[in-house]
Amino acid sequence: MDYQAARRHMVDSQVRPNDVTDIRIQLAMETTPRELFLPVELREQAYIEREVVYAEGRRLLRARDFAKLVAVAAPEPDDIILNAVCGSGYSTAVLSQLAEMVVSIENNEALAATAQENLLSLGLSNAAVITSEPWVGALKQGPFDLIFIGGGAIEQQPDALLAQLKDGGRLAAIVRKNGVSRGGLYCRSGDTFAFTEYFDAATSAVVPGFEKPKSFSF
Q1: Which residue, 3, 19, 77, 102, is most buried by CB atoms nearer than 10 A?
Q2: Is 23 exposed, middle or buried (0-12, 13-18, 19+ CB in 10 A)?
Q3: pLDDT 10s digits, 127-141
Q4: What's the rounded Cα separation, in Å, for the pair 154 and 181?
Q5: What is the Cα–Cα distance from 103 to 137, expressed in whole angstroms?
Q6: Which residues of 65-98 are buried (b: 16+ CB within 10 A; e: fewer)?
Q7: Residue 29, class by beta-carbon neighbours within 10 Å (0-12 exposed, 13-18 middle, 19+ buried)?
Q8: Backbone torsions φ then ψ of 124, nearest 5 degrees
């Protein structure tokens, strides 16, 4: 399979036509080998227009949804980013090309090691992977300009992560509510957090640890 051609086609058909106009994002996705972040047996699925589950609780979002979420996040070259759901490192690889530094979290030690290996193999030296719980964050490494939650949706406001934003910082996530997933952005102003929705997302999967607490009735 010609993966380079597949990446170009992915950007041309799934990213650029969906209002992702930032050339930096297009270029990062066109040059990042998405297949590298999948097990060998799944690599031919890297560029199809659907999510790919590659480990328990870990998936590659559709390129369209991922690109739009990155566009909403609007990473700046001097941003320090917390990537709260690292997986095998694809989102980290893309974000690290758009920011000064990316701190990534993965609670699966084997996946965290794989992610770090993948990033090093691409020569991305401004990204580090730490083993921790995604919903806990990385308090010692913060505060952050941007926090990114990819790999699925969240069902509740991630208060522990929001507290690790700088004043004026933002958190990008797909929020699932009443059976509908919407990509959007939390913005911090002092101790206030405002959420704005931007686009409909296809994912129905909730990232483990970000589920809405179950209520009990008697």
Answers
A1: 102
A2: exposed
A3: 999 999 999 999 999
A4: 9
A5: 10
A6: bbbbbbbbbebeeebbbbbbbbbbbbbbbbbbbb
A7: buried
A8: -90, 95
- Kindly state whether residue 210 falls inside one of the protein's structural domains: no
In this predicted model, what pLDDT tens digit does every residue of 148-204 receive, in sequence order? 999 999 999 999 999 999 999 999 999 999 999 999 999 999 999 999 999 999 999
Does 207 fall in a domain? no
Residue 213 inside a domain? The answer is: no
CB 88 within 8 A of CB 58: yes
CB neighbour list of residue 178: distance below 8 Å, 6 or more residues apart: none
User: What domain range is 97 assigned to?
Assistant: 3-200
The overall pTM is greater than 0.90: yes
Domain with residue 108: its CATH number is: 3.40.50.150
> Tokens at residue 73, please?
């996040």
- The count of structural domains within the chain is 1
User: Residue 26 corresponds to which tokens in the numbers above?
Assistant: 């297009």
Report the C-alpha gap between 96 and 128 in whole angstroms.
10
With H, G, I as helix, E, B as strand and everything else as coil, classify residue 28: helix
